[in-house]
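Researcher: Structure prediction, please.
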Amino acid sequence: MPDRRRLLLPVRLPGRTFRAYRAGAHLAPDRAIGTITFAEYLAGHPDVRDRSYRGRR
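Model: Predicted structure follows.
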């Protein structure tokens, strides 16, 4: 597939809710209750990228 360049435009949505999203209010770093990192979580699970969701035939 040839390299394609696409124009990306920032989308600014008005309003209090979207302003909070831009500020990161939907994230919860102060309430991080997990005990492992995401990389550790992925290491503990099998790699399923080469498996078909339809099962074997």
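Model: The radius of gyration is 20 Å.
Researcher: Thanks, that helps.
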